[in-house]
Amino acid sequence: MQGMKRKLVYVTFYELIGLCMSTLGLAYLADTQASHTGPLAVMITTIAMLWNLIYNTLFEYWESRQAKRGRSVARRVAHAIGFQLTLVVYLIPLIAWWLGMTLVEALLVDMAFIVLIPCYTFAYNWAFDRMFGLPNSALASA
Question: DSSP label at 102?
């Protein structure tokens, strides 16, 4: 599977799993009900989904121009950390506003996700590539 179909399947399942983790995790970390964090998790998931499509397109554009092809552990780690760190810029203000806390408090709440999501992203990407094969950008040139 390649192209936009691959990206849409990837991001849909990635974000559905992320939505469940976010709803429950935010409720636990903010000591509130999942019914209060559920809408926040939907907003987070929507932002993450859009950013995921953009980020992966940019990453694959960069990846396709590299002399060394394939997805090494180092490249996968860089991808996962890069995605999470750039996403935080969008999410911290939203979390602070929704939960009525300072940016520093929102960052502390989000710290668990900052650690967890790159691990989840790494494992998800590895499993996705094993199930669907590598994208063209990571395949050796013919």
Answer: -
Residue 141: its pLDDT value, please?
A: 64
Over residues 8-41, the pLDDT tens digits come to: 898 889 888 888 888 888 888 888 888 888 899 8
Nearest to 101 by CA among 35, 21, 29, 48: 29
Q: What is the dihedral of CA 104, 96, 24, 35, to 10 degrees?
A: 150
CB within 8 Å of 96: residues ≥ 6 apart: 102, 103, 105, 106
- The burial of 110, by beta-carbon neighbours within 10 Å (0-12 exposed, 13-18 middle, 19 or more buried), is given as buried
For residue 105, give both structure tokens: 């408090």
Q: Does 141 or 98 have the greater pLDDT score? A: 98
- Asked if 18 contacts 10 with a C-beta cutoff of 8 angstroms, the reply is no
Smallest CA-to-CA distance from 30 within 133, 80, 39, 86 is with 39
Supply the pTM of this predicted model: 0.66
Q: What is the mean pLDDT of the chain?
A: 86
Query: What is the dihedral angle through the alpha carbons of 112, 115, 119, 120, rounded to the nearest 10 degrees?
Result: 30
| Pair 50, 23: CB distance under 8 Å | no
